[in-house]
Amino acid sequence: MECNKPKNIKSCTCTYEPCSRKGLCCECVEYHRNNGEIPGCFFSKSAEKTYDRSIENFIKSYKRN
Description:
Distance between the termini: 36 Å
Structural class: mainly alpha
Number of strands: 0
Helix content: 40-55%
Largest sheet: none
Radius of gyration: 12 Å
C-alpha cells in the first residue's frame, strides 16, 4: 500500500511545523510508538498544541473534557 501524502496532509492536525513525518501517518505512528508517545492527531486541539505527546498527557486531556 502506498502512502497518499497529499491526501493525508490535508487532514493532518499536527501543528509541529518542522516535522518531517507530516502526511506520512505510518511513519508518524511508528516514531511516536517507539518513543512511548501518541501522535498529535489523537489529541484535542488545545492538548496537541502543547507538543506533549505522552500517554499521561493524552489521558489527562480526555479526563478534563
